[in-house]
């Protein structure tokens, strides 16, 4: 089992691999795990459409009404404890200029 996060930042980070936030995943038994969000590796700005080897093809791409190319990456997170029920997922910003936004979340697998 895995979760797929459709997410972006509003603006680019200063450099690739800057930590822009994290997901905190809480299980029904109260235990937690975190997934760090590094810019250019796990997440990027919706206007940052340059190819990168760290982020595969976007989950969605398009063009704004003004003609600006945009793309939304997907992060697939494999649950290290698939036998445990996930109670909640919280997105926490690192507080920099490249604030993350979660647009969609879905469960992959059965």
- Average of per-residue pLDDT values: 92
- Spatial strand sequence of the major β-sheet: 6-1-8
Element order, helices and strands?
EEEEEEEE
Ranges where pLDDT stays below 50 over 5 or more residues in a row are: none
What distance separates the N and C termini? 7 Å
Q: Helical amount among residues, as a percent range? A: under 10%
- Backbone structural class: mainly beta
Radius of gyration: 14 Å
Could you describe the largest sheet, including whether it forms a barrel?
3 strands, antiparallel
Number of DSSP helices?
0
The backbone outline, from C-alpha atoms, is globular
The percentage of residues in β strands lies in: over 45%
Number of strands: 8
Structure summary:
The protein has strands spanning 2-9, 19-27, 32-38, 60-63, 69-72, 74-78, 86-93, 100-108.
Question: Can you describe what's shown?
Answer:
There is one protein chain. The protein has 110 residues and is mainly β. Helices cover 0% and strands 49% of the residues. It has strands at 2-9, 19-27, 32-38, 60-63, 69-72, 74-78, 86-93, 100-108. The strands form three sheets. Strands 6-1-8 form a three-stranded antiparallel β-sheet, with no helix packed on it. Strands 3-2-7 form a three-stranded antiparallel β-sheet, with no helix packed on it. Strand 4 and strand 5 form a beta hairpin.
